[in-house]
């Protein structure tokens, strides 16, 4: 009760006592605060753990970013004056890390030669060169060996003078106390590891392969070499004939005396011009862009791919817009019965997941067994997906099938917004149907749909799914040395070049092409925004 | 035949002719369109029920009807992939709704320095799709994975985070417009009653904007469901694949022999999306014209 509130005691006021305002009801921090506190505790715990592991992994950039993000979060959610940020921050963090950063990073990688042969820093390249060059040192000692495993991880356990050391491909050898040895010094029991029985090793060919190719570093320093085995019973130290001179920044082959010095392309090169396979990535300026436009292996195919990307995006938008609009105009007619049912069936292809549509049509257009040939072409063997032009036609056709419903829905809505008085006035003035459509309906329609058409263009410009699922970019260009085909659009060509799914990786060139795509999208969007503003002013 | 009957009959015939010219022809055309729209789907259903399960001879519709293909799905990783897809799509949708709504609320209700700039920046950023930067996404995840394995390559959580990176750009505008239609007087009344901004957000505004929440959630789910390139890059292990990656692998390797399996998988996998889409049709049309595009 609001005792002491003069208004409440005034005689003749409403009999029901007025509800106390929430402000007076305040009794210290409520549930909301508790929830916030709990959430922030979780965030800080997880963040703190991540900071620690960044410290152990020596990823200083990630560590710095984590600390900043965490401190910002604490400040924002416990300070009073940061109200808008309380609502924006989570989204902004994801946006900054997974979108803005990746866009900027693409811009950075585009100016480097990052890729196969140029991964990581110079120090990593030195380690890789040492590892690649490793040979078994003559008269190097052998150690009794047991192959051990922990789940999926294989390791070596070796003994020397009764001390057992265990290491894996990622972790160098380190002593493990409490292991048991047999009389030849082979470890038989290693705490924390399962010793693989010799018999298993002889019968399992896969395992043998893995054991023979396993390389366990002796220590963190790559120059100390590694343990390898040929038969699974003894291990020997393999060391590199290369020696790294950190001051002179050269690698010297101790057998031949050849000196490899770093060049400005991220490679170690000898005086005779021999190059070591391992390199690091360096800034190469506009090389990737120059290569994309002038290298004979890339320029021709990329030009064709670029032209087809534009053709595909424009034709797809035009055809599906046209068909959708046609259907919308026919069935935007109150005299037609069952329009609701018709509409639902018409948009079925759109509701069906796009990647399944593409795969479904891939089967239906199959040259040998596909139903398109069987039903509509009397069993002819038309190789829809194997011929460069037919494949393009097939892609346009399938994309028309799965995207006309979108335009049908959009234009139906837009048509209903066209004022009937205007049309009636035109009719009274003697305008025919075509004239009404051209001079009134279409311009009005374009005002509301042009931005969507542009968005659709941008979407199809990067419509990786339909291309990759339907044709995989094929058929491949004849005689070309690069993995591109006649239905590849830029994004699928980038995918092939980047090598993220295997094969030779060229992140630099791929990122450079991504930048080209970004520029195209940016220019088209900018032009489009100006154009739509003009349309709206009409 | 009397003289008065002839004009009447002629009139009926003329009216019928006019009806055919203006309305009637639309029905046969509708049949053609329905066939065009639906025959691939009917064919997929028929192929999924075909006992032999191969592409060859699947042209004879419903020649044999059995559930062998559906049962055979159990012998593959299909259900694992379906679970992964639901998990990833669901988490991405939930995150997109929560973060998008919070951002839209801030932009719609608070006046702060840099508000207009941030809105413009969002508008520009969202024009550049994440998928084109997939190389950088891949390299980022490789680097993150060395620090936090749960955010590295081949982690579902990492893929969800990548999808959430695009959430703010794609959805804020859609929601911002809708939040602006909720009258500010409601907030003010509650503020006078002593409600905090959090209470206003959760108790007053959120219930009023549920339609747009449903649309954004659905669109985010469908786009995660249909994404291929990012899922293919991030999820390398077979057990972590989504339906898009897994079913692509089926068809790309052995198109002809696994056709029945694919058709059954497609039928099962598309049903929830079809049902959701058709039931929320009304809302989606509004959402589509506000800027989110699939086709």
Any chance you could write out the topology, listing elements then pairs?
The complex is a heterodimer of chains A (538) and B (295).
Chain A: H1 31-56, H2 60-78, H3 83-109, H4 122-132, E1 134-136, E2 142-150, E3 153-160, E4 163-168, E5 174-175, E6 180-181, E7 187-189, E8 194-195, H5 198-203, H6 205-213, E9 216-217, E10 226-229, E11 234-240, E12 242-245, E13 250-253, E14 259-262, E15 268-270, H7 287-294, H8 296-331, H9 339-346, H10 348-351, H11 354-364, H12 371-376, H13 388-416, H14 420-428, H15 433-461, H16 464-470, H17 490-498, H18 507-537
Antiparallel strand pairs in A: 1-11, 2-3, 2-8, 2-11, 3-4, 4-5, 6-7, 9-10, 10-11, 12-13, 13-14, 14-15
Chain B: H1 5-24, H2 26-49, H3 68-73, H4 78-109, H5 115-125, H6 134-147, H7 156-165, H8 167-180, H9 184-192, H10 197-208, H11 210-226, H12 229-234, H13 243-253, H14 259-279, H15 281-289
Write structural notes for this entry.
The complex is a heterodimer of chains A (538) and B (295). With 538 residues, chain A is an alpha+beta fold. Chain A folds into 3 domains: 29-109; 137-257, no CATH class; 296-537, Orthogonal Bundle (MetI-like fold). Chain A is 53% helix and 12% strand. Chain A has 18 helices and 15 strands. Chain A has helices at 31-56, 60-78, 83-109, 122-132, 198-203, 205-213, 287-294, 296-331, 339-346, 348-351, 354-364, 371-376, 388-416, 420-428, 433-461, 464-470, 490-498, 507-537; strands at residues 134-136, 142-150, 153-160, 163-168, 174-175, 180-181, 187-189, 194-195, 216-217, 226-229, 234-240, 242-245, 250-253, 259-262, 268-270. In chain A, strands 1, 2, 3, 4, 5, 8, 9, 10 and 11 form a 9-stranded antiparallel beta sheet that branches. In chain A, strands 12-13-14-15 form a 4-stranded antiparallel beta sheet, covered by helices on one side. In chain A, strands 6-7 form a two-stranded antiparallel ribbon. In chain A, a hairpin with a 5-residue loop joins strand 14 (259-262) and strand 15. In chain A, helix 1 (31-56) packs antiparallel against helix 2 (60-78) and helix 8 (296-331) runs antiparallel to helix 15 (433-461). The longest helix of chain A is centred in the middle third of the chain and has 36 residues, at 296-331. The model of chain A is unreliable at 1-15 (pLDDT under 50). Chain B has 295 residues and is mainly α. Chain B has 2 domains: 5-71, no CATH class; 76-289, MetI-like (MetI-like fold). Helices cover 73% and strands 0% of the residues of chain B. In chain B, helix 9 runs antiparallel to helix 10 (197-208). The longest helix of chain B has 32 residues, at 78-109. Chain B is flat, with a radius of gyration of 26 Å. At the A-B interface, helix 1, helix 3, helix 8, helix 9 and helix 10 of A face helix 2, helix 4, helix 5, helix 6 and helix 7 of B.
């Amino acid at each position: 009760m609001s005792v002491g509130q003069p208004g409440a005691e005034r005689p003749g006021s409403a009999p029901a006592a007025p509800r106390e305002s929430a402000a007076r009801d305040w009794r210290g921090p409520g549930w909301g605060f508790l929830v916030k506190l709990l959430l922030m505790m979780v965030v800080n715990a997880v963040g703190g753990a991540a900071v620690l592991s960044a410290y152990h992994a020596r990823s200083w950039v990630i560590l710095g970013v984590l600390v900043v993000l965490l401190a910002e979060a604490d400040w924002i959610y416990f300070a009073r004056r940061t109200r808008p940020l309380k609502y924006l921050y989570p989204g902004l963090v994801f946006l900054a890390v997974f979108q803005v950063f990746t866009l900027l990073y693409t811009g950075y990688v585009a100016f480097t030669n990052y890729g196969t042969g140029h991964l990581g820093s110079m120090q990593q390249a030195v380690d890789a060169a040492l590892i690649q060059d490793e040979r078994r040192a003559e008269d190097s000692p052998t150690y009794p060996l047991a192959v051990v495993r922990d789940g999926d991880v294989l390791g070596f356990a070796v003994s020397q003078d009764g001390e057992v050391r265990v290491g894996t491909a990622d972790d160098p050898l380190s002593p493990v106390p409490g292991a048991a040895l047999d009389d030849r010094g082979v470890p038989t029991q290693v705490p924390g590891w399962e010793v693989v029985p010799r018999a298993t090793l002889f019968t399992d060919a896969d395992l043998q392969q893995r054991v023979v190719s396993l390389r366990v570093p002796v220590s963190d320093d790559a120059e100390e070499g590694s343990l390898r085995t040929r038969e699974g019973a003894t291990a020997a130290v393999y060391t590199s004939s290369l020696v790294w001179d950190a001051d002179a920044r050269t690698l010297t082959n101790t057998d031949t005396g050849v000196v490899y010095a770093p060049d400005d392309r991220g490679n170690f090169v000898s005086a005779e011009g021999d190059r070591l396979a391992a390199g690091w990535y360096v800034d190469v300026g506009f090389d990737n862009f120059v290569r994309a436009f002038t290298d004979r292996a890339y320029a021709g195919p990329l030009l064709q791919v670029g032209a087809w990307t534009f053709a595909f995006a424009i034709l797809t938008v035009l055809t599906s817009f046209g068909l959708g609009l046609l259907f919308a105009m026919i069935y935007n007619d109150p005299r037609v019965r069952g329009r609701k049912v018709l509409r639902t069936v018409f948009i079925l292809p759109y509701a069906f997941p796009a990647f399944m549509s593409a795969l479904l049509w891939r089967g239906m257009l199959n040259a040998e067994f596909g139903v398109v040939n069987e039903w509509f072409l009397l069993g002819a063997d038309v190789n829809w997906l194997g011929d460069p032009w037919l494949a393009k036609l097939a892609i346009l056709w399938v994309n028309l099938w799965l995207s006309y419903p979108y335009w049908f829905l959009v234009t139906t809505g837009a048509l209903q917004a066209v004022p009937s008085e205007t049309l009636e006035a035109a009719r009274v003035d003697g305008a025919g149907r075509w004239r009404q459509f051209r001079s009134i309906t279409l311009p009005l329609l374009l005002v509301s749909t042009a931005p969507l058409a542009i968005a659709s263009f941008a979407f199809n410009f990067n419509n990786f799914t339909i291309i990759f699922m339907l044709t995989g970019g094929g058929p491949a260009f004849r005689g070309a040395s690069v993995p591109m085909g006649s239905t590849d659009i830029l994004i699928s060509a980038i995918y092939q070049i980047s090598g993220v799914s295997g094969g030779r990786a060229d992140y630099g060139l791929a990122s450079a092409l991504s930048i080209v795509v970004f520029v195209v999208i940016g220019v088209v969007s900018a032009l489009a925004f100006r154009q739509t503003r003009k349309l709206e002013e009409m | 035949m009397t003289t008065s009957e002839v004009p009447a009959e002629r009139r009926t015939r003329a009216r019928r002719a006019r009806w055919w010219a203006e309305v009637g022809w639309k029905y046969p055309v509708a049949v053609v369109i329905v066939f065009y729209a639906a025959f691939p789907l009917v064919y997929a259903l028929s192929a999924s029920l075909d006992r032999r399960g191969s592409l060859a001879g699947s042209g004879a519709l419903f020649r044999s009807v059995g559930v062998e293909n559906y049962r055979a799905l159990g012998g593959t990783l299909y259900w694992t992939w379906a679970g992964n897809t639901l998990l990833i799509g669901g988490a991405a949708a939930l995150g997109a709704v929560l973060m998008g709504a919070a951002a839209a609320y801030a932009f719609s209700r608070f006046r702060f320095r840099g508000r207009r700039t941030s809105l413009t920046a969002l508008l520009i950023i969202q024009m550049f799709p994440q998928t084109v930067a997939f190389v950088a996404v891949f390299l980022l995840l490789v680097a993150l994975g060395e620090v936090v394995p749960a955010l590295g390559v081949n982690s579902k959580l990492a893929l969800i985070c990548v999808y959430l990176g695009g959430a703010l750009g794609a959805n804020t505008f859609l929601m911002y417009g809708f939040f602006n239609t909720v009258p500010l007087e409601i907030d003010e009344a509650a503020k006078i009653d002593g409600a905090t901004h959090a209470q206003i957000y959760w108790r007053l505004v959120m219930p009023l904007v549920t339609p747009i929440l449903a649309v954004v959630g659905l669109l985010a789910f469908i786009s995660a469901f249909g994404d291929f390139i990012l899922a293919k890059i991030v999820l390398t292990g077979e057990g972590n694949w989504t339906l898009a990656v897994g079913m692509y692998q089926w068809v790309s390797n052995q198109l002809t022999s696994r056709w029945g399996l694919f058709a059954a998988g497609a039928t099962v996998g598309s049903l929830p999306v079809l049902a959701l889409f058709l039931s929320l049709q009304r809302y989606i049309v509004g959402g589509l014209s506000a800027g989110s595009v699939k086709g």
